Amino acid sequence: MKRVIRFDRGFLAAALISVALIAFGVFGLATKGINLGVDFQAGINQYVQLVYPAVDVSYSGAGNAVLSVSDTRAVLVFSGADVENRTIEYDLAAAGTLADLAASLSSQPGVSARVIDGAGKPAASLVPTYQGDIRLTADAARLSREPETEAEYFAGMDKVRAAASTIGSVSVQSIGERIRQQYIIRLRDDGSDSKFSTTSAERIRTALEAAFGPGRVVVMKTDFVGARFSKDLADNAWKLTLFTVLAILAYATARFKIQYALGAVLAILHDALIMIAFIVWTRIEFNTSTLAAILTILGYSINDTIVIFDRIREDRRLLPTEPFHSVLNKSITETLGRTVITTVTTLLAVLALYFFTTGSIKDFALALFVGIISGTYSTIFIATAFVAFWNDTAEKRKKSQSAASAAKKPGNAPALKPAK
Amino acid sequence: MNKAKRVLIVLVVLGLAFLFLMPSIRWYFFIPKDEKILATGSSEQIREYAWRMARNDLAELEKAARESGDQPLPAGLQWMADRAKKLYKDLGKQAPSTWTAKAVLAAYDSRKSAMSDIEDRYRTRILQLKNLQNTVVQLGLDLSGGMSVVIRADLPALEAKLGHSLSLSEREEAMSRALEVLNNRIDKFGLTEPVIRRQGEDGIYVEIPGAADPERINSIIMGRGRLAFHIVDDEATARLNEYLTRNPSGIDADLKVADPSIVPAGNVVRKFYKKDKYGLDEWTGRYLVITEEPGLDGNHIQRAERTNDPITGEPNIIFVLDSEGGEIFYALTSANVGKTLAVVLDDRIKAGARISEAIRESVRMTGFSVEESANLALILRSAALPVELIVESQQAIGASLGEDSIEEGKRAVLIGLLAVMAFMLLYYKGAGINAALAQVINLYLMLSILSGFNLTLTLPAIAGFVLTVGMSVDANVIIFERIKEELRAGKGRRAAIEAGFGKAFWAVMDGNITTIIAALFLAQLGSGPIQGFAVSLAIGNLSSLFTSLFVSRLLFDFGTDRGLKGVSISWRIK
Questions:
Q1: Same domain (yes/no): A156, A171
Q2: Which residues are paired to A284 by β-bridges?
Q3: Do A129 and B537 touch (CB under 8 A)?
Q4: Which residues, other chains included, contact B122 with Cβ-Cβ below 8 Å and sequence gap of 6+?
Q5: Which domain holds residue A170?
């Protein structure tokens, strides 16, 4: 038989550490506030890239000609009734220079591609068609390219901020490699401008173009969330978290005793608060993804807790005479292997997410990482500790009650109370 | 349950999953891109495509028939021989031995029926593709690229304009007017059909796959619906129809006619629409030539309603103009008695009515069915009571970013899966194979459920998959640890496996059910992305119950029956 680890010795210290961590988080929340993402705070997030104009493409033939450029490929698709339907793909890395690519595009009937700038630059320097596939028409569509060398670099946080500041108080963040000149520009919607939702994207672009020149700005992505939408989401988030907790409480009460259910819920609340403390202090953006991470951990942590509770219940049945604390220690020890392995495999998956994704999913994975560790820890040191505490209190009360009832019996002097 | 039955169940589940997956595999890996563009178009764009193809084919066929009597069928039209054979048979005629263009044409009683036959064929093919697309895993906008917009109808502003609060039916009508105006512009969004649907009491959700240009899309969405009355040039319309019969591709997508002499200066070609049975616009296949400048702008309409004629009981539409509009309308109608007046909303002709006499403010239109007149009254009122639209939220993401996300997601799933599998193999040795196989089946089942129920795959959903890969091993771990304990207690293979699965059952169930509860609540939250994540989490948990309790048990039992004595499950226990 394995040696039983005396987990109950750590209960008090763990409780103190947890309280301290949560208090630290609450303190941070009160003083620094949480970094609310666009989902929860009305405004616009515009992702832009500063570029050079490269190739103009137009189409004068029949049917539809649709051009799309990604990081690695350019795809030209002809469809419709009056044109031979076909798909032509170019591997940008193998396509040579921009001039070469333009020449092979132009070899398609009806298509005309004209290099405006950087004819000798590689085709792979083209910026993807972020705003969707381009349906080519007689009016030329513009393809852009990124700077290739440091000498071509013309942006910089300060310049972008100065340019965007002309439309109001904005915050600017640089994303991706420096040379690619990609930025997020965030503008709050304070509700004073009724046309904000429809005009702000254009205003940001125009302000940047005024500073860097026409054709130098490409919009990669736009997120706008209005005041009512963000408020609805916040309200929903609260309600859902509450309902989730209540539903779990109800299920756990039905399957176990109330003290177990309360212990489990206390543990998941603990995890949520630890994650919020982490989010507050790392300044990770609090958005729907991070919220999803918290709710996921509620599910993960409860799973973890229930497995241990299940074992405690079983061991109690097997060893009815054993003191409760030693049953706890035994059950936790027995399930420790499973706890560690499940934590490791889940962390492996989360690490895969963290290292192989970008943007909000990366933050999501980071929040999950913290949550999983907290969830494993809280199962042992919060949920079971609470059950132990409940049992101790109940036993003490029973004892003092039996002592009190014993005291009422005539002839029993209080001096005979058993000494500790 | 005996083993044969259990194997059968597993095979049936795997087979069913494959059936679910098939359409998605076909759509994403075997349909060429140019066909996809056609299939994702709106039903009108598909109609237009079929119409043009049919005209081109028929022209080719007729040309072949004219040139010589025994010209063989043009390549690509061979299928028509089979059709013609059937038609000959139906008519009781003797079928010719070789199918020439002439013989095929002779099978049809009119040019029109030949045309509609060809048109049907094209339309059916594309519509089948479109149906296929509706039964596959949908890619969320974050993966396919595109834009989603939540719009709110500004009903308080409408109330302020009307001077009284809106009744429930008035609110409903205001919303259907706003939807009507949006649906009317469906083709302006691009080559892919947008999704436009009502959301809640006063919201409209618009999703435009492929396009991610908020400035352009906003101008389409926010532009007021423009209603106007135009006079139809009946002579030019007849000329145009005759010309198009001869030159099927004589008109382009922007409704410009190749021969400029057909449409007189100051006139334009517009398409004529009717509502189909779903209440969506359907092009009737007709073109009308109308004046470029409207005879009367719709903003002169003060109110419009549908009534029944007190004597005949026929549905009528009555609309009332302001006095300035009345003057304009009087001048217009008196100059054009006997001609057709077209009701045009955003460049689409919605109705035509003959002008029988000069009319002032109060206009009565007759000769429509009950439904038509209700629709028309709604359209006329949309000019009288325009609903302002406010953008509530907007997400736009380019297709290329979506492709990057797909790559990232694939890699994360693959690496996550491999890492977990490697760990399980190292830690649990032989039993690890069990767990690894269960993970692969798990992922396969998750994908097939996504496909079978046409759920949407988003980046958060992929994240849910990765997480599920890690979390769902848990069920295996609980069981394996139990089996190890039983082995340590001295039990043999069969007994240890039996007891391990039995004792772990409720722990596995409890743990998974609570997680599924959390996931289902999560699925209620806000917009698409989290829903995708939550749904994939719930599906993953469900399928991991199946793989861990059922499939993995079966694998163990197979080993036992092969005569294995010990369990290869740990480095320490032999």
A1: yes
A2: none
A3: no
A4: B49, B50, B53, B54
A5: 44-48+151-225
Q: Give the amino acid at A299.
A: G
Instruction: Specify if A307 maps to a domain.
Output: yes
Full 3-state SS string of B442-464: HHHHHHHHHHHCCCEECHHHHHH
* Domain edge (last residue) among A116, A143, A170: A143
Q: Does residue A412 sit within a domain?
A: no
Select from B394, B426, B448 the last residue of a domain: B394
Neighbours of B507 (CB within 10 A): 26
Torsions phi, psi for A162 (to 5 deg)? -60, -40
Last residue of a domain, one of B96, B115, B136: B136
Dihedral pair phi/psi, residue B353, rounded to 5°: -140, 140
Among A312, A304, A308, A240, residue whose Cα is nearest residue A268: A304
Alpha-carbon distance of A23 to A29, in angstroms, equals: 10
CB-nearest to A356 from B403, B408, B485 is B408
B-chain residue closest to A79, CA distance: B34
Nearest-angstrom CA–CA distance, B549 and B502: 10
Mutate to test the interface with B, among A361, A362, A372 (most CBs of B within 10 A): A361
**Judgement on whether residues A213 and A248 belong to the same structural domain of the protein:** no
Residue in chain A nearest B475 by alpha carbon: A342
On whether both A180 and A102 belong to a single domain, the answer is no
B517 touches A: beta carbon within 8 Å: yes
Looking up residue A188, the CATH number of its domain turns out to be 3.30.70
Q: Are residues A157 and A62 in the same domain?
A: no
Exposed/middle/buried for B339, CB within 10 Å: 0-12, 13-18, 19+? middle
**For residue A2, is it within any domain?**
no
In this structure, the strands spanning B348-354 and A217-225 are unpaired
**Same domain for A34 and A161?**
no
Q: Give the residue ranges of chain B where pLDDT is below 70.
A: 1, 68-71, 224, 277-280, 525-529, 573-574
State the ipTM, two decimals. 0.76
Q: How many independent structural domains does chain A possess?
A: 3
Answer whether residue A60 is part of any domain.
Answer: yes
CA distance B425 to chain A (A): 12
Tokens found for residue B333: 């109608």
Tell me, yes or no, whether B234 and B373 share the same domain.
yes
- Using left for φ > 0, alpha for ψ between -120 and 50, and beta otherwise, residue B411 falls in alpha
Residue B570 placed within a domain: no
- Which region among A165-179, A273-287, A374-388, B62-76 has the lowest average model confidence (pLDDT)? B62-76
Instruction: List pLDDT tens digits, range A262-277.
Output: 999 999 899 999 999 9
Distance in angstroms (rounded) separating the CA atoms of residues A68 and B129 = 22
pLDDT tens digits, one per residue of A12-59: 888 899 999 999 999 998 998 888 877 777 888 888 999 999 999 999
Q: What is the pLDDT of residues A175-194, one digit of tens each?
A: 878 888 999 898 888 777 77
pTM: 0.75
Q: How far apart are CA B454 and CA B140, in angstroms?
A: 11
β-strands B315-321, B301-308 pairing: antiparallel
C-beta atoms of B391 and A228 within 8 A = no
Please tell me the distance from the alpha carbon of residue B214 to that of residue B206, in angstroms, as a whole number. 12
Nearest residue of B to residue A205, measured between CA atoms: B215
Q: Taking residues A330-354, what's their average pLDDT?
A: 90
Q: Are residues A221 and A239 in the same domain?
A: no
DSSP B294: -
By residue range, what is the domain housing residue B10?
Answer: 3-23+399-561
CA B368 to CA B309: how far, in whole Å? 12
Q: Residue B1, SS3?
A: coil
Angle between helices A288-318 and B459-488 (to 10 degrees): 20
Query: Is B526 contained in some domain?
Result: yes
Q: What is the mean pLDDT of chain A?
A: 85
Q: Structural domain tally of chain B?
A: 4
